[in-house]
Amino acid sequence: xxxxxxxxxxxxxxxxxxxxxxxxxxxxxxxxxxxxxxxxxxxxxxxxxxxxxxxxxxxxxxxxxxxxxxxxxxxxxxxxxxxxxxxxxx
Length: 90
What we know:
Blueprint (H helix, E strand, L loop, with lengths): L21 E2 L6 E2 L4 E4 L5 E3 L3 E3 L5 E3 L3 E11 L5 E9 L1
Parallel strand pairs: 4-8
Antiparallel strand pairs: 1-3, 2-7, 3-6, 5-6, 7-8
């Protein structure tokens, strides 16, 4: 007869690597064309002048310049006005 009890099943064993999301270049930093400024899920930050939004909501620089972040009011689907951060390259 065994002297070790059954181990049971483990439920929380699956682990996936992080997606490396977030701001890659901050305000006042120099940027070149095509560089990633923000990696995000959904449009938490909006693209402004000199930037473009890719299919996975990543914000890239459209021209050389300096990154600038500013807050602006955006209307939601329901008509409510909320503050969102706008990323632009000047």
